[in-house]
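Subject: Transglutaminase-like cysteine peptidase

B.,
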Amino acid sequence: MVSRRQVLSGLGAGLLCLMIGAPSTASAFNPARIRQKMQQAHGASGVTLIDEWLAMIQRLRGARLGDQMREVNDFFNRKVRWRDDISIWGQEDYWATPLEMLGKREGDCEDYSIAKYITLKELGVPGNKLRMIYVRARIGRSQQSQAHMVLGYYQTPASEPLVLDNIIPSIRPASERDDLTPVFSFNSSGLWAGGSQESRADPLARLSRWQSVVNRMRDQGFI
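Prediction pasted inline below.
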């Protein structure tokens, strides 16, 4: 859980005046390159964990969607410890690739959501059914509101999403997560304000941190 006041306020002011964009989402998944990059960055311990991730992908290919979502959600929630970006990276807001997060075995809410998104896409879940959702989350007895990110699965653009979260481990419909208030959502091809069904922007043009992590994932062999 992390504070994202600048991101949220900036997007809130500008979303409605942006045009739709749709960058290419062609896959270039390269396990050998991923393993090589992990070895270079994090050594044998990193390769061990990335191999577990690759084995999970192989095992889940062709499995039922519900099983895929549950196991992917559980994998990252179990294998990665939550820490804020300042503690991990010395930066207030850093979006890590799955390699970076698994190499450190630490991450924050954006990192969990990005890793689950990339993994489910590689398993064949259509990218247009997945969105990373920035929300306001009410935490604890004080019900203090903080910025947070989850991954949503949408059967159709108008469907109520299923929520994959690192805080509450069970996958639940959004209507059962009254602690979350959506602010905006995005994926590789669109960006939506609140609960809108119409994309308002090119996420790569609007979200510099998303553009940065996409570029690093391409270099590392994820996309």
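The first strand starts at residue 81 and ends at 82.

T.
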